[in-house]
């Protein structure tokens, strides 16, 4: 219980302190420190759950179960490593005059606030608060995406705000309908929005209302997941914001939005006898995978490329949860974990590569290994991992999803295989010349922070070879919960 | 028939009328007036529901609506408009009669969507659910057809009004903690957008969103590589020279 309070309070305190400290040189160190403290608290919470099992605390307002505990740990971990990466990265950006010093105050403070909204969205037991936290995450990231104040970044942030604002409004309507359906069983008042209460009575919830609610919730939160056709904000926001922000958007925000969708799906599955929610999720997922894979081919900007790759992978995960059943859900949860780790590692490497060559256009990034072997290999290995090469963890999860799809929904496999093939060709052919060959990169005075990249890739490698038993247990019981 | 439900129905129809009025209004200042009027009607109707059903927390949300949507937000918007010196909004994407016709179709659709839900509802306000959904859809339409930044934001806010009305009609309002959270998000959102407007103006000399259409996959890349503008960092040497 103390751990939950700490996990939520530390980033808030961090945000307040950083807003106060402002542009002093040690602000980035405080940012790392606050993120580290949050990570330690999340680790304590995780150990608490390993020892004592799931819990619902603080007047039933907070919930820790196998489905969200690993996401909390993952979020805190990636937020911490990104803050480590962002120290040298943002220093270079500031030295190149892309940022005024005052802007760094906003950056650090919003970074912590963003972490807070993510963790609140994960830990809350209240579906309404979940919505509030998701909207809060949109607001903080809008400020982060527009940090450079260039015309392009303003446009990206505006698009992001309007699209996600409209999307999240749909989700609010879905939440209202959910509350309406629950109010008939649980009575009015705060309890009717508590997820655990809803889950207990889910079989008796009014099916028609829940069906309509789920459509709104899926489209609403799906906008934030980046599902096609409501994905337009995602590549712009990733490409125009600072790289650490791209990393946390892809690695954390998309996961948390998908988490919200799945929490709602559990309720709808209980209320509706058919496979309504599952079919919808499979459809959206598959369309996202295929469209994103083909759009990968025409990308020229390195961050846009990997942003589309995020859409593709979110599609795969949504499809997996749509398939349902113990294996596909297990694979979906595993894929959430490994995608988040791999994609943020790739963005770290891509950010350094862009700084060394002075461009995000892939044609002009060449021969990274000659100047900086660590950045080059980091990018190459990250790309291989995200493309699902064994022995990385992405291979394991994609393999499980594909085999389950072959068994249960054979019609979907050709689409998936073609999309994965196209994505492979697109990313591999673009990354290979960037890493090898004659170089266009220059040396920078600041040493890149490559430790986060290799730490992430090592974890992904480990998850491909061996999943710790407690994590596998969580995946299994969360998979049962998701149904 | 008791007075209260009729009063609520009256307020609901005024809300719908206001939504149509917003759709057809070209002047930005009048648009803000209409938005404030919508907030006022919303607060009155919430207070009426609170009185008829004896739900004390609804009085609080009526007060919240009054403070936020009738005074604070319109005040911020007026200030923005005065500082940015935008008075008029000339063109929309679709002309106004067509927009109105699309709006009517949306209202019909909204009533159909609301039918199965209001059949189950036991609230005195259930008949207004269709209007609430219609208001949401009309605001959505307004966001699509307007090309300027401030009308889009007003559309966004009035969509939130519609959702709030839907919450009161279907369920007598959301729990207080959620409502406070939503109000906070909306307020912070408007403040952020206010800052944003100044930046957009600074960069583009206009609040017309047609300037914000440069980011397409192909075009953005071509523009960037053509000028050699470095996007990753501002290093002096353009990459084209090195190859």
Descriptive labels:
heterodimer; A: about 475 residues; mainly alpha; 19 helices; globular; B: about 240 residues; about 75% helix
Question: What distance separates the N and C termini of chain A?
Answer: 28 Å
- Spans of chain B of 5+ residues with little confidence (pLDDT < 50)? 219-243
- Computed over alpha carbons, the radius of gyration of chain A is 21 Å
Helix and strand sequence of chain B: HHHHHHHHH
Mean model confidence by pLDDT of chain A? 91
Can you give the mean pLDDT of chain B?
Answer: 80
Output the number of helix runs of chain A: 19
Largest sheet of chain B: none
Please tally the β strands of chain B and state the result.
0
What does this structure look like?
The complex is a heterodimer of chains A (483) and B (243). The model of chain A has no long low-confidence stretch (mean pLDDT 91). By secondary structure, chain A is mainly alpha-helical. Helices cover 78% and strands 1% of the residues of chain A. The two termini of chain A are 28 Å apart. A two-stranded antiparallel sheet of chain A has the order 1-2. Chain B is globular, with a radius of gyration of 22 Å. In chain B, 77% of the residues lie in helices and 0% in strands. In chain B, helix 2 packs parallel to helix 6 (149-171), helix 4 (96-120) packs antiparallel against helix 5 (129-145) and helix 6 packs antiparallel against helix 7 (176-204). The model of chain B is unreliable at 219-243 (pLDDT under 50). Chain B contains nine helices and no strands. Chain B is mainly alpha-helical.
């Amino acid at each position: 219980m103390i751990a939950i309070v700490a996990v939520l309070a530390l980033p808030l305190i961090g945000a307040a302190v950083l807003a106060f400290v402002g542009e002093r040189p040690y602000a980035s160190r405080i940012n790392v420190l606050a993120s580290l403290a949050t990570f330690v608290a999340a680790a304590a919470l995780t150990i608490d759950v390993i020892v004592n099992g799931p819990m619902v605390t603080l007047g039933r307002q907070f919930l820790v179960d196998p489905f969200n505990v690993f996401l909390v740990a993952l979020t805190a971990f990636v937020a911490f490593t990104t803050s480590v990466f962002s120290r040298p990265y943002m220093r270079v950006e500031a030295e190149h005059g892309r940022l005024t010093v005052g802007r760094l105050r906003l950056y650090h403070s919003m970074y912590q606030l963003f972490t807070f909204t993510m963790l609140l969205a994960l830990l809350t037991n209240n579906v309404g608060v979940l919505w509030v936290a998701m909207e809060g995450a949109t607001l903080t990231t809008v400020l982060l995406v527009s940090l450079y104040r260039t015309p392009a970044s303003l446009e990206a942030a505006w698009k992001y705000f309007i699209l996600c604002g409209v999307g999240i409004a749909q989700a609010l309507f879905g939440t209202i309908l959910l509350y309406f359906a629950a109010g008939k069983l649980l009575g009015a008042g705060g309890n009717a929005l508590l997820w655990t209460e809803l889950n207990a009575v889910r079989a008796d919830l009014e099916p028609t209302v829940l069906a309509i609610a789920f459509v709104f919730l899926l489209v609403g939160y799906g906008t934030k997941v980046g599902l096609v056709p409501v994905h337009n904000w995602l590549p712009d926001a990733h490409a125009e914001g600072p790289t650490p922000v791209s990393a946390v958007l892809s690695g954390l925000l998309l996961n948390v939005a998908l988490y919200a969708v799945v929490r709602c799906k559990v309720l709808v599955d209980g209320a509706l006898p058919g496979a309504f929610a599952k079919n919808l999720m499979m459809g959206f997922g598959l369309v996202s995978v295929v469209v994103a894979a083909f759009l990968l081919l025409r990308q020229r900007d390195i961050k846009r490329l990997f942003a589309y790759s995020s859409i593709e992978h979110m599609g795969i995960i949504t499809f997996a949860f749509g398939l349902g059943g113990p294996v596909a859900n297990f694979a979906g949860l595993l894929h959430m974990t490994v995608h988040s780790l791999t994609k943020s590692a790739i963005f770290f490497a891509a950010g350094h590569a862009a700084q060394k060559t002075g461009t995000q256009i892939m044609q002009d990034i060449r021969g990274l290994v000659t100047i900086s072997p660590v950045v080059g290999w980091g990018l190459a290995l990250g790309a291989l991992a995200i493309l699902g090469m064994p022995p990385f963890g992405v291979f394991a999860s994609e393999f499980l999803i594909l085999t389950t799809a072959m068994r249960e929904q054979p019609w979907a496999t050709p689409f998936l295989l073609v999309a994965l093939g196209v994505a492979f060709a697109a990313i591999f052919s673009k990354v290979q010349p960037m890493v090898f060959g004659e170089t266009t990169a220059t040396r920078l005075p600041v040493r890149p922070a490559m430790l986060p990249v290799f730490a992430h890739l090592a974890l992904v490698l480990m998850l491909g070879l061996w999943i710790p038993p407690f994590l596998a247990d969580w995946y299994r019981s969360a998979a049962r919960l998701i149904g | 028939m008791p007075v209260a439900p009729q009063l609520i129905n009256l307020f609901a129809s005024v809300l719908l009328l206001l939504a149509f009025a917003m759709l057809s209004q070209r002047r930005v200042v009048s648009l803000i007036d209409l938005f404030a009027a919508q907030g006022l009607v919303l607060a009155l109707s919430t207070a009426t529901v609170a009185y008829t059903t004896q739900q004390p927390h609804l009085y609080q949300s009526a007060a919240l609506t009054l403070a936020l949507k009738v005074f604070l937000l319109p005040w911020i918007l007026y200030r923005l408009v005065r500082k940015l010196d935008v008075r008029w909004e000339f063109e929309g994407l679709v002309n106004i009669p067509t927009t109105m016709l699309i709006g009517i179709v949306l209202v019909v659709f909204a009533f159909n969507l609301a039918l199965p839900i209001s059949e189950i509802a036991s609230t005195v306000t259930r008949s207004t659910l269709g209007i609430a959904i219609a208001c949401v859809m009309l605001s959505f339409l307004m966001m699509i057809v307007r090309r300027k930044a401030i009308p889009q934001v007003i559309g966004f806010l009035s969509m939130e009004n519609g959702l709030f009305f839907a919450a009161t009609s279907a369920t007598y309002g959301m729990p207080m903690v959620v409502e406070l959270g939503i109000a906070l998000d909306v307020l912070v959102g408007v403040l952020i957008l206010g800052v944003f407007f100044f930046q957009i103006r600074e960069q583009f000399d206009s609040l017309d969103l047609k300037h914000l259409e440069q980011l397409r996959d192909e075009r953005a890349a071509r523009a960037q590589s053509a000028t050699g503008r470095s996007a990753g960092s501002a290093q002096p040497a353009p990459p084209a020279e090195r190859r």
